[in-house]
From TrEMBL:
4Fe-4S ferredoxin-type domain residues: 15-44, 49-80
Key word Iron present: yes
Protein name (Swiss-Prot/TrEMBL): 4Fe-4S ferredoxin iron-sulfur binding domain protein
Keyword terms of this UniProt record: Iron, Iron-sulfur, Metal-binding
GO molecular function: iron-sulfur cluster binding; metal ion binding
SUPFAM superfamilies according to UniProt: 4Fe-4S ferredoxins
PROSITE patterns: 4FE4S_FER_1, 4FE4S_FER_2
Pfam families attached to this UniProt entry: Fer4_7
Organism: Ammonifex degensii (strain DSM 10501 / KC4)
PANTHER family linked: POLYFERREDOXIN PROTEIN FWDF (PTHR43193:SF2), PTHR43193
Length: 90
């Protein structure tokens, strides 16, 4: 999978949410589907000049937003994943 441009990274209690403005079309599907209502509109603009989204501290890193985004504009990294990657590195 290829992402375009630098991501906006939001640290949350359970991990981090990376939003790629170059892919986000501002459809709002992720906001609608987030079970914790942890996403809101951002001041940063996406590929069509519409707002992107940002994650708040309420995020539980469930990955729902990543799964429903039709444009692969969100990547969710859980804290436990970061630890596993760090310990498994060379
Ligand atoms: S991140 Fe994806 S689902 Fe969320 S507003 Fe952007 S394009 Fe839509
Ligand atoms: S990972 Fe889950 S809780 Fe966090 S913003 Fe996405 S849908 Fe909401």
């Amino acid at each position: 999978m290829q992402h375009f441009g630098e991501p906006l990274i939001y640290e949350t209690g359970k991990g981090r949410v990376c939003v790629f403005p170059g892919l986000c079309k501002g459809c709002g599907l992720c906001i609608e589907k987030c079970p914790k209502k942890a996403l809101r509109w951002s001041k940063y603009l996406g590929v069509y000049g519409t707002p992107t989204v940002e994650a708040t501290e309420d995020c539980i890193a469930c990955g729902m937003c990543q799964n429903v985004c039709p444009d692969c504009a969100i990547l969710v990294i859980r804290d436990e994943g970061k630890k596993a990657a760090a310990s498994g590195g060379s």
